[in-house]
Design brief:
sterol metabolism, mainly alpha, 2% strand
Length: 233
């Protein structure tokens, strides 16, 4: 009886041992719903920041014009533009890794943060070119931006799902912009394609590819932390 008591005590003490602490962040990311919210918030914040910066370029160049009564921020942008862009960025950034998982084709091309940052820099450069560089005509500008946007996809993505989603979302965003302009929410100077500028789909396509890459990288970082947790357990 004494021996059995000693064994049971040892078993209880062994079962009472706790795993070494892995830090508060490792513990938080074990909850998938929490990580989804965190990723969504980060993507939303990035989208808002890029919207403020890029729209500032467009307004300064008088490419887009907002009515005076809706200009309410120091960045000369309508208040609803950054939240809309942030929401779209969060949806796109969460959708890309989800589609990759559904198709069973994990994206492994240039999966490092330095590549993502270069992609963001190229996207900002494309938007800057649309606002600052003077071309002979709108057709030349549109063709140039289309080539740059496809080059961005080829350099940093190269996935069929990425290209397909980029085209579909760019067309939907262009249609939404046309409806907003048609209803007088804002306007483009010198519109040359159904109330808007013909190069706008190229900018949307490049933006979708950029946010998709950021979303994929955040999802990959989450997977790495999850695998570390599994190994520690």
């Amino acid at each position: 009886m004494a021996d059995s008591t000693v064994v049971s005590d040892q078993q209880r003490s062994g079962s009472g041992q706790t795993a070494p602490s892995r830090g508060p962040y490792i513990a938080v990311i074990t909850n998938r719903s929490t990580t989804l919210v965190i990723r969504g918030f980060m993507l939303f914040s990035i989208g808002v920041f890029l919207a403020l910066v890029l729209n500032l370029l467009q307004v300064q160049r008088n490419v887009t014009l907002f009515p005076p009564d809706v200009i309410s921020s120091i960045f000369s942008s309508a208040w609803w533009v950054p939240p809309c862009c942030g929401t779209a960025s969060a949806i796109i950034g969460l959708l890309y890794p989800c589609i990759d998982c559904r198709l069973g084709e994990p994206h492994k091309f240039k999966r490092e943060w330095s590549s993502v940052m270069r992609c963001v820099a190229v996207f900002v450069g494309i938007n800057h070119a649309s606002a600052k560089v003077d071309f002979a005509n709108n057709v030349q500008l549109s063709l140039t931006l289309a080539a740059l946007s496809i080059g961005l996809w080829w350099t940093f993505d190269r996935s069929r799902s990425g290209f397909g989603l980029g085209v579909v979302i760019a067309l939907l965003a262009t249609l939404s912009t046309q409806l907003l302009v048609y209803n007088g929410v804002f306007q483009y100077t010198s519109p040359d394609f159904l109330y808007i500028r013909s190069w706008l789909p190229c900018i949307f396509f490049a933006g979708v590819i950029t946010m998709g890459n950021i979303g994929r990288q955040l999802a990959l970082y989450e997977c790495k932390l999850m695998s570390e947790k599994t190994h520690q357990d």
